[in-house]
């Protein structure tokens, strides 16, 4: 029994060493990627459910590794958040996304808004508003065309401070939306204090529509809440015509999901913007 215990210990410690090694290697790879800015920005259209117009594009980061493979955000965003590297990473994404959207604006291909994901680490930084407003003003993009997507968990840390910061951005014309709504633990009383203009219904509530009775109730309740507070709604993860129909029937304003388009490269987005007809 003694030997067995020792064996177990060695097994665990070996496993832990491997995990630690993996983290260290990830950390240096990500740091290099940030230094060399080897990230692509993909764009996913946001569509007005009624008019079928393209109202916005959400920027979603993709990491191209040294072998040319694409790495998805779920594999590195949480790690980048933990280590604080997300601040630099998001600056790169914002800069690239803004430059691209300005090009489309100048070519008259797209005049809608740009949605940017904001890590909660950013919101907590003292120079947060300044660095965002500097980025936007140097891009020459009208602030009214910028929407920052913030998750509930990001807002709930030091809510009073976050509210003050977001209010200052709102004064510049920038719009704020709550991402992944319903998945966090936010107290509803904060919703009315936040300077937000839109609620994004998390795709986990959409995937089983229109069959799942609980999801039907939840989505209807979110839309009712938003509408009574004068907020716009956007449903994420809409993949089928029935889901689009459900959103239309229940008064959800905007749609984002594979039904219209997956996140696309710059080239594919350009083609989509030129060819999309209502
Ligand atoms: P998110 O902000 O909730 O973005 C929506 C995610 O849902 C995207 O995953 C998108 O590809 C996916 N999606 C969109 N429509 C559909 C659909 O119809 N069906 C399904 N199954 N999925 C759909 P993605 O691009 O892998 O990004 C994952 C998450 O990583 C994002 O979730 C966001 O939280 C984070 N993220 C992505 N890019 C950035 C970034 O530049 N900065 C920061 N801070 N976070 C980012
Ligand atoms: Ca988002
Ligand atoms: Ca989301
Ligand atoms: Ca999400």
Automatic annotation (TrEMBL):
Coiled-coil region: none
Domain EAL: 23-277
Name this polypeptide is given: Diguanylate cyclase/phosphodiesterase with PAS/PAC sensor(S)
Species for this entry: Sulfurimonas autotrophica (strain ATCC BAA-671 / DSM 16294 / JCM 11897 / OK10)
């Amino acid at each position: 029994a003694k030997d067995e215990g020792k064996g177990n210990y060695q097994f665990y410690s070996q496993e832990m060493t491997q995990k630690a090694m993996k983290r260290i290697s990830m950390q240096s790879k990500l740091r290099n990627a940030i230094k060399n800015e080897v990230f692509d920005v993909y764009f996913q259209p946001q569509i007005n459910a009624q008019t079928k117009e393209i109202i916005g594009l959400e920027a979603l980061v993709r990491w191209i590794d040294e072998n040319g493979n694409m790495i998805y955000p779920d594999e590195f965003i949480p790690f980048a958040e933990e280590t604080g590297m997300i601040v630099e990473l998001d600056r790169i994404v914002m800069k690239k996304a803004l430059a691209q959207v300005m090009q489309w604006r100048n070519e008259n291909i797209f005049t809608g808004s740009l949605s940017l994901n904001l890590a909660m680490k950013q919101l907590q930084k003292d120079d947060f508003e300044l660095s965002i407003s500097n980025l936007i003003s140097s891009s020459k993009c009208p602030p009214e065309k910028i929407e920052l997507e913030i998750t509930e968990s990001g807002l709930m840390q030091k809510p009073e401070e976050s509210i003050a910061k977001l209010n200052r951005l709102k004064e510049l014309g920038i719009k704020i939306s709550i991402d992944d709504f319903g998945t966090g633990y936010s107290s509803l009383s904060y919703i009315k204090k936040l300077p937000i203009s839109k609620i994004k219904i998390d795709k986990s509530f959409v995937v089983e529509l229109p069959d799942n009775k609980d999801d039907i109730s939840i989505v209807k309740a979110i839309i009712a809440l938003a509408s009574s507070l004068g907020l716009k709604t956007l449903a994420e993860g809409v993949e089928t015509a029935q889901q689009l129909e459900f959103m239309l029937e229940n008064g959800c304003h905007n749609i984002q999901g594979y039904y219209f388009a997956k996140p696309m490269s710059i080239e594919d987005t350009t083609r989509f913007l030129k060819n999309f007809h209502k």
